[in-house]
Amino acid sequence: MDSGVVGAEAVAPTALAAPPYLVIAQVAKSFGTFAALHRVSLSITQGEFVVFLGPSGCGKTTLLRAIAGLDPPTTGSITQGGRDITGLPPEQRDFGIVFQSYALFPNLSVADNIGYGLRGPGWNRARIAARVAELLTTVGLPEQAAKYPAQLSGGQQQRVALARALANEPGLLLLDEPLSALDAIVRINLRQELRSVQRRLGVTTIMVTHDQEEAMSVSDRIVVMSQGRIEQVGTPEEIYRRPASPFVAGFVGRSAHFAARVDTPANTLVTPDGLRLEARGLAHLLYGTGVEVFIRPEDVRIGPEAAAMRHQPGVVTHIEFMGALSRVSLEVGRLRLDADVPAGMVASLGAAVGATLPAALPPEALMVFPTDA
Amino acid sequence: MPSASLPASLIPAQRIVRPRLSRAAWIMRAGQWLALIALALTLLLPMAVLLSRAFSNQAGDFVWLVNFATYVTTPALFTAAWNSVWTAALTTLLVIPLAFGYAYALTRSRMPAKGLFRAAMLIPVLAPSLLPALALITLFGNQGLLRGALFGYPLYGPVGVIMAQVFACFPHAALILTVALGTADGRLYEAASSLKAHPLRVFLTVTLPQARYGLVSAAIVVLTLVMTDFGIPKVIGGQFPVLATDVYKQVVGALDFNMGAVVGIVLLLPAIAAFLIDRWAQRQREATMSGRAVAYTPKRHRMRDGLCLLHCLVVAGVLLGLTGVAIWGSLVTFWPYNLTLTAANYAFDSFDPAGWGAVWNSVKLATLVAIIGAPLVFTMAWLLERGPQGGPIPPLLRLAATLPLAIPGLVLGLAYILFFNHPANPLEYFYGGLAILVANSLVHFYTVGHLTAVTAIRQLDPEFEAVGASLRVPVFVTFGRVTVPICLPAILDIAVYLFVNAMTTVSAVIFLYGPDTKLAAIAVVHMDEGGQGSAAAAMACTILAITSAVKLVHVAMGGVVNRATQAWRKR
Questions:
Q1: How far is CA A35 from each of CA A55, A58, A232, rounded to the nearest angstrom?
Q2: Which of residues 93-112 of A touch B (CB under 8 A)?
Q3: Strand order across the A335-342 sheet
C-alpha cells in the first residue's frame, strides 16, 4: 500500500527510470493537538531540484526539518538512498543545509566557516585550504576568505552559507527560504546562480519558499502545499497550466475567479447573473454541479481579437501599467476580470477607463473545479 | 485521497517514529540531569528541610501550624514584620524618583561626563551594604560630626536604616531604569513631535509608559533588597527589630531553629511574591520593544541637560561622599577625639582573632565562586537552552535556576545549616568548611548569572547547532569554537558579578562560616558589635578596594578580550 501511494506520486514526466533517491512515505507531524503535516508522501529523484511552495504555515518548513532530522516526524518513514533515516539524528544523515538567517558563525572568518565541517582524518591544513578555495570559486567569492561574515553583503553571506553546506559533498542540499532576506535584484541573480551551481554539481536539492515566481524559475518540480497537505506535485508548467485544485490555481500565478454552475448543453457553465460560458472537459459533471472557475489575465481576450470569438461587453474600470504589459481590469456583468495586454497596444485596443470593449473567455483557458465533490 | 473511502481496517497502520538521540544529545541530557541533581542537593533539599522544620517542634514532631500561631501571637515578632514592610516601602518611595532622574539623565539628555556618572553609580554595588551604615554612624552617630542635623531623631533605628538602604539600593534601581529608558524607539518621539505634542505630554504619554515595567521591576527589586538585607539593620538598626535580624536572633541568640525557620518563611513570602511580579513585568517589557525600533538620540536642550547634570552631581556627590567618609573614618586614630590619620585600624589582627585571614578567606571564596561558577553557570544555561527539550527536565531545571532570586540569603543560609548540619546527612562533613560557603554563594547568586548567560545564548542564531550537526561536527566543538568565544564577555561579566557578591555578602554566609573560614564582611559585623567602628570601616573599605580592583581589571581585561575574541563585530 505504501509503495503504491509512493509510486502514484512518483509518476511525473521528469522522473527518470532510476529508483527514487529520497522517499517520503505517509509522513505526519503533530505538535500536541495541532497537525502540521497530514500523511505526506513524495519521491525525489537523484539530481532533482524540488521546491516546496506554499503560504506560511502550510507545513513546508516542517517537512524540510523532518527530512533534515531537526524535528523528526511523528509517524511515517523517510528513506534516503535506500537507507531508512526517519528517526536518525541530523549528525547521522547526509545533507547540507542553508537557513533563511544563513546561521553563519559570526566569530569565524569566511574560510573557517566554509571549512567548519572539514575535520577528521585526511583533512590536513593544506587540503582544507584547497577545498575552501575551490568552494569559494564555485560560489563566486574568491578573495573573501579572510573576512568575517559581518563584513559581507547579504548576498555574499548567502553564498558563504551555500559553500559551507556543500563542503562535505552532501547527497542532499536543503535550502530553507534561502533568498527571502535579500533585495529583489540580488534575489533574482542569486537564484539563477543557485540553479547553475546545483546543475553543475548534480546535487539533489530541496528548497522551501513562499515565492511562486522563485519556485517556478529554479525548480524541476514544484510541490505545492497547503494546510499540511500536498496539493499538487508537478513541473512548473504543469502547476501553472493544469492546477490540480482551486488552491493551486489561486496561489500560483494570478487569476480571476468566480462561481458558476454546470448547465446544458454539455460543457456549458452559467454564472449566478446568467452569463453563459463555454468550457472544455466537463462532460463528467452533472447538470447543476456548482463549480469554481479560474482564468489567468494573459488568457482573457479583449478588443478585436475577442470580437471574433464568443464574447460579452466589458467595461474598463482600471488600467495598471506594469512595464512591458499593462493590466486592464474589466467588469463583464458582475464578473471582475483582468486582461494582460502589451503596453503599446492599450490605446489601439481602445482601452480607456469607462470604455466598453468586447471581452472573451476562451473555453480552453477556463480552469474549472467542482466545489461540492 | 483514495484512502479516505477505504474501511479503517485497510488503512495501513501508522508507524510511530521514535527519534533516536545522537550521542551528543544523550550527553547533554545527562548534563541536564546532573545540573538538576546538583541544584536539588544545594537548593531544593535544604529548602525542603527548612519548610519541614517550620512545622515541627523542638523534639522533631510534626505540629501543623503551631509555630506560626506562636509567631502571630508574639507581638515582638509581628512588629518586626511590620517594620520590615514600612521601611522597605519608604526606601522604595525615596529611591525610585532619585534613580529615575539619574537614569533619565544618563539615557535621555546630552549632559557631559555620562561615563563618569555611570561609574559613580556602581560604587554601592562594589561595597558591602555595611559600608554606608558605618559612614552614616561616623557622620550622624552618637559621636558623629553632624549628629545635630537629624533634628533629634536617633540615627540608630529606622532613620539610619532607611538612609543606608537608599544608598545601597540606588544602583540596582538605577541600572534597571537605565536599561528600561535606554531602549527607546526614536520613531515614537519623531511621531510625537510631528504631531506637535508638548514636551511634558511626550514625557507622560511616551517616556513614562515605555518605562513603566522597568519602574515596576525597580520598585520590586528595591522592596526585596530592603526586606531581606541583614547587614544594615544589624549595624545601624539599634533596637529596631526587622525580619532579617529576627531570624538571626532566633537562630544565633535563642538557638530556636524552628522559630527561625518560621520567620525565614515569613521573609520568603514577600520575596516570592516580588519575584513573581517582577517576572510578569519582565515579560511585559520584552514585548514592548519590537525588532524594527530605531534607537533614540536625544537632542541638545540647555535647561533639561542642566537640570540632569545638577541631579547627577548631587546624587553622585552623596554616593562618593559617603564612601569618602567611610574611608576617612577608617583612617582616623580615635574617632572623634583624635582625627590624626593612621593605618592602625587596618591592623586587623589586633581587633579580631581572624584578622587579615578573614580578608584572604573572602578573596579565596570569591575567587573560587567566580572561577567555578562562571563556567558552570554558563554551561548549565547552554545545556538548558540548546540541549534536548522534551520531557520534564528542562522546565524543572529552568524553575530551579530562577528560584534562588526569590530566596533571601539569610533564609538560604538557615536552610543550609539545617540541611548540612543534620546528623543524618552524609554531607555533614562540609559544614563549617570552605566548600559549603562556595556552594551556598553559588546558589545564592545563581539566578542573575543564569539570566545573563541565557540572554547571551539567546542572541545567537538558533540554528548554529543544527548547522554543526548537518556538517557532522559534534555539538561540543560548536560550543567551544563558536558559542563560548562569542559569549566570552558575558561569561566574564558573570565571573565578576559572582566575585563581587561573594566578597560583599553577609546574609547568606553568617550562619555557615567556621573558625577557619571567617569572612571579611562578617568580620565587619563582629568588629562593629565589639565597638571597633573604625576597624569595621577599615575592613569594609578593604573589601571595597578589592572589588574595585577586580572591576577595574575586568574593564581593562574586557578591552583585551574584546580585541582577541570580538574582532568580528567590527564592520
A1: 16, 11, 19
A2: 93, 95-97, 99, 101, 103, 105-108
A3: A301-302, A356-360, A312-321, A325-332, A335-342
DSSP A275-302: -EEE-SS-TTSPTT-EEEEEE-GGG-EE
pLDDT score, position B11: 53
Q: How far is A308 from chain B (nearest CA, A)?
A: 42
Answer whether B18 touches A (CB < 8 Å): yes
Number of residues in chain A: 373
- Return the residue matching grid coordinates 566578597: B503
Q: What does the pLDDT read at residue B310? A: 94
Instruction: Mutation target for B interface from A6, A91, A230: give the one with most B CBs within 10 A.
Output: A91
Position B287 scores a pLDDT of 55
Burial of A323: CB neighbours in 10 Å, binned 0-12, 13-18, 19+? exposed
Which of B17, B474, B482 is nearest residue A108 as measured by Cβ atoms?
Answer: B482
* Residue A17 CA: distances (Å) to CA of A20, A89, A113, B444, B472: 9, 30, 38, 67, 32
> Does residue A1 have a pLDDT over 60?
no
**Mean local confidence (pLDDT), B23-45:** 91
pLDDT > 80? residue B334: no
Residue of B nearest to A173 (CA): B470
User: Is the CB of residue B563 less than 8 Å away from at least one CB of chain A?
Assistant: no
Name the band, by pLDDT with cuts 50, 70 and 90, for residue A10: very low
Q: Which triple of cell numbers denotes residue B520?
A: 571579611
Which residue in B22, B485, B565 is closest to A89 by CB distance? B22
Q: Chain B residue closest to A74 (CA)? A: B17
AA identity, residue A241:
R
Average pLDDT rounded to a whole number, residues A232-258: 93
Model confidence band, residue A11 (pLDDT cutoffs 50, 70, 90): very low
Residue B477: closest C-alpha in chain A? A116
Q: Rg (Cα) of chain A, in Å, rounded? A: 25
To test the contact with chain A by mutation, choose from B17, B459, B464 the residue with the greatest count of A C-beta atoms within 10 A, namely B17
Q: Does B17 touch chain A (CB under 8 A)?
A: yes
| Rounded alpha-carbon distances, angstroms, from residue A182 to A100, A101, B294, B459, B505 | 10, 10, 21, 21, 52
* Alpha-carbon gap: B284 to the closest alpha carbon of chain A (Å): 26
Q: How many CA atoms lie within 13 A of B342 on its CB side?
A: 12
pTM of the model: 0.85
Gyration radius (Cα) of chain B, Å: 26
Query: Do the bridges between strand A325-332 and strand A312-321 make them parallel or antiparallel, or are there none, so unpaired?
Result: antiparallel
Out of B3, B20, B571, the one facing A87 most closely (by C-beta) is: B20
